[in-house]
Structures are given as structure tokens and as C-alpha cells.
Amino acid sequence: MLFSHPPMRTLIVGVGALGGTIATRGISAGAPIWLATRSPQSAAALRASGLRVSGTGGPAEARSVRVAAALEYANAEKFDLIVLATKAQDALEAAPFLARLLAPGASLLCIQNGGVSQMLSERLGEGVVLGGLSNLGATMVEPGVYEQRNAGHLLIGEVAGGISDRAMNVAEALRPAIEMRVTANLAGAIWSKLLLNCSVTTIGALAKQTMRGYMASPAGREVFHRVYDEALSVALSSGTRLERMIVDPVPPEGDRSRWVDQILTNYGDIKPSMLQDFERGRRTEIDFINGYTTEQGRKLGVAVAMNAAITAMAHRIERGDTRPDPARLDDLLREAG
User: Fold this and answer.
1) Is the domain of 202 the same as that of 272?
2) Contact in structure between 38 and 108 (CB atoms under 8 Å)
């Protein structure tokens, strides 16, 4: 692989579906990538098994993997780039330590949902943090084995906005692994994706249905439009200039059926990742999706009753007080009023 400038010594933190897919393709293309896991045991398992990915983009394999538990990098050579590919709550916890592993002028790239990059930028400084988001569809079949489901990309940019040389350089460094795009309006892109996360993903998780499934019911349609419209009002009230993603983030006046059909074409049959978290007994990212929208809406004086009801219900499911089921849709309508 030829680089137009010296390649970046890169650490990918988190070897789940997204981090593992990017790592496998990057390493197989010759990029200088190291991996960080939670524990020495999981690192040892990946060293023994290597990495492989199938699906969209064709097969790729990385037999020799430089991987260790994150804490073991404390005394290692510093990195030019650290890609934080963990759950949002884990990213906030790990970032202060990871920032100490960066070389002078290096970047910490956050690709989590919601306001994570903004939060970390405030804590660590805009000169350290780059933000981003992913529309790469991938699943982890088992540790070290991944399936890529679409030809997605990473969209990255400065938290404060604008195009920078460092964002362009980071994009070039990761391009061997995944299609990269740079935006001057990261905040608008993050909110546009958050609108779909708040509605498509979360409702499906609570109802234990795909979007196509819950949109077949009157309750599902009402919940979808209410939660989307609330989140949209929050985004616009914050002064955000939204970016077109899969669809125009602002629905048309009047009949929305064609607009909804566009969303269904892209997301209608996908099992929500949050539902997978519920099934595995894992903590979800609800506080960084509908919870974040609720918090921002209350600060701005925007009505967010449905987002608040969704957030509370997700927490009840996490605690085991209730379970995902289509009946949750009617529950949400009662609770949101």
C-alpha cells in the first residue's frame, strides 16, 4: 500500500463490529494499526485467531495482529491517531487515559452516537478531539470474525466546524480500511443521524420489531412521527444546520409516505443494535440518543415527552422490570400523553 505522506501509527480501541471491520481491512491493506481490548485474555485470543471479514467489499484477513489490553499501552510508543470505536459510555470513561497515549499534535477520533465528541472536546480540547459518525453496517459473528453488510463510510470533521488539514490527513490515513468523507458541518451530520437513531433504532428495540414491523401498526406510526418531530425541533432550536443523510432530515409538509418509504428502504428490515443489547443483558446507549435529545430539549424549552418516555422505558428494560414487546408502543403513547 502506498501512502502520499508518512502513514499514521494508529490505535483502534474497541474490536466489536465497527472497530473490528475497520481494523481487519486496514491491517490487510498494510496500514500500521494496533488494537486495544478490555482485557489481556481477549487480546491473547485475537492474537491467536487473527481477524477476518466477509460480505460487502469482499473478504479480508489479518493473520498477524498487534493487540493488547488498553492499559498495556501506557508505556508504549505514542500514537498519531486513536480511533475510539467503543460504546458511548465506554468512550467517555476511556478517553482521558487514551489522550495520554497520543503524540504531540495527534488526534483522538470519536465515532459514537449523540454528543460524545462534543463532550470530549469540552473535556480534552478541540485540538485533541475529532468527531465522526459511521453508517457502516457490520456485525460481529464471533470475536475476530465480522460480516460487513453495506458499503458504508466514516464521516469525520472538526467539532467546531470547518475543514481542517488534520481531518483530511486522518481521512487519508484510514482510507485503506474504509471509505472516508470529511464534513465542514459535523454537528449537522451528527444530529441528522441522531434523528434516525432516536426513532428507527430505539422504537424497534423497545417493540422487538424491525421498523417495517412497527410501522404496520397505528401505534407504531404515531410513536415514530412524534419522537422524530420532537428530536427535529430540538435540533433546529439549537441552531443546527442539518445535513442530508439517507433522507432529507426535514420531512415534507403534508403527506410523508414517500419520505417514510425512503427510510424503510434503507432501515426497514434491520434488527436494531439496541435490541441486541437488550437480549445480551448489556447496557445500551439510550442516554446518548433519546436521553441526550431529552436533556437538550429541556434546556431549550422544547417539548420532549415521547423522547423522555422512551428513555425511561429503555432503562426499565435494562433493569429487567419489563421486556421488549410490541405492547410497549401503546405503553409509550399512554406515558407520553
Assistant:
1) yes
2) no
Q: What is the grid cell recorded at 228?
A: 422524530
CA distance between the termini of the chain = 58
pLDDT at 2: 41
Counted residue by residue, the chain has a size of: 337
In contact, 51 and 27? CB cutoff 8 Å: yes
Q: Phi, psi (5° rounding) for residue 77?
A: -60, 140
| 197-206 pLDDT, tens digit each | 999 999 999 9
- Strand-pair category, 138-142 with 145-148: antiparallel
pTM of the model: 0.89
Question: DSSP secondary structure string, 319-334?
Answer: HTSS---TTHHHHHHH
Residue 5 domain flag = no
In a domain, 41, yes or no: yes
Question: What are φ and ψ of residue 3, in 5° steps?
Answer: -115, 145
Are the C-beta atoms of residues 216 and 227 closer than 8 Å to each other?
A: no
CATH code, domain carrying 76: 3.40.50.720
Single-letter code of the amino acid located at 13 = V
Determine phi and psi for 181, rounding to 5 degrees.
-135, 150
Q: CB burial class (10 A; 0-12, 13-18, 19+) of residue 121? A: buried
Per-residue cell: 239: 441552531
**Residue 6 near residue 171, CB atoms below 8 Å:** no
